[in-house]
């Protein structure tokens, strides 16, 4: 399947576009429809397109399940931050910060939860895609 020059050419444009769209949907997740889940699905779709266009070699070397585990830890950690500030588990907390050149900003704890969901979805789907792709190999049993 990865021998098609048309698929490779289209993928060279579509994959960066899908990754950008994934980032954009992730960032708008708190104010508009979107968030970590759908952004992770779009990023995994870009990964699936890469697998179809360029083969499984490079992506099979990365242990995608570890990204899922890291995402789970990130989502759980975002729930414990409010506990440290005296609120309940998974309560909404806004972390205010001051940067020298950028000025004042705030970072909601839900962003880290969404990041965890993003990593879980991306890691799980990419693990499935890579494992399914490895089954086509004649040397796999």
Widest β-sheet, arrangement of strands: 1-2
Q: State the secondary-structure class.
A: mainly alpha
Low-confidence stretches: none
Question: What is the N-to-C succession of helices and strands?
Answer: HHHHEEH
If helices are DSSP runs of H or I spanning 4 or more residues, what is the number of helices? 5
Q: How much of the sequence is in beta strands?
A: 5-15%
Mean pLDDT: 87
Which secondary structure elements does this structure contain, and how are they paired or packed?
Blueprint: H1 5-27, H2 36-54, H3 57-60, H4 64-84, E1 94-99, E2 103-108, H5 109-134
Antiparallel strand pairs: 1-2
Helix pairs in contact: 1-2, 2-5, 4-5
Give a quick set of tags describing it.
2 strands, elongated, single chain, two-stranded antiparallel ribbon, mainly alpha
Overview of the molecule:
- It contains five helices and two strands.
- The chain has a two-stranded antiparallel ribbon.
- The mean pLDDT is 87.
- Helix 2 runs parallel beside helix 5.
- The protein is mainly α and 141 residues long.
């Amino acid at each position: 399947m990865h021998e098609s020059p048309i698929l490779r050419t289209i993928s060279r444009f579509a994959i960066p576009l899908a990754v950008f769209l994934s980032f954009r949907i992730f960032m708008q997740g708190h104010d508009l429809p979107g968030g970590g889940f759908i952004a992770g699905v779009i990023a995994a779709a870009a990964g699936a397109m890469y697998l179809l266009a360029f083969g499984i070699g490079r992506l099979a070397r990365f242990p995608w399940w570890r990204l899922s585990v890291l995402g789970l830890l990130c989502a759980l950690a975002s729930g414990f931050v409010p506990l440290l500030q005296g609120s309940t588990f998974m309560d909404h907390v806004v972390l205010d910060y001051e940067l020298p050149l950028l000025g004042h900003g705030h970072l909601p704890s839900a962003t880290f939860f969404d990041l965890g969901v993003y990593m879980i979805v991306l890691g799980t789907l990419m693990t499935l895609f890579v494992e399914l792709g490895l089954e086509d190999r004649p040397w796999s049993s």
